[in-house]
Amino acid sequence: APYAAAKAGVIALTKAIAVENAPTIRANTIAPTATDTEFLRGGTGRAPTHGGERHVDANAAKLIPMGRIGLPALIDQLKSGKMAATPPVAETP
Known about the structure:
Layout: H1 2-21, H2 72-80
């Protein structure tokens, strides 16, 4: 619950900044859902995962509106403003 509240707070703050400063200043935020990282695979990113296996069941992607786990490369594209015409697609576990 604290993570969800913090994420919602960042989104609300971004919207408020955008409304108060438009059209002079633009405000954007990236708030990705589950992303294919070491942490999602069951690790902390500090040590190798358990043989690289996923610790996310096959139904997890069904809970995400786009129906798939996000990729770090897609977030990098969003940050750089270089969205590909066809974004990369993560494999379903």
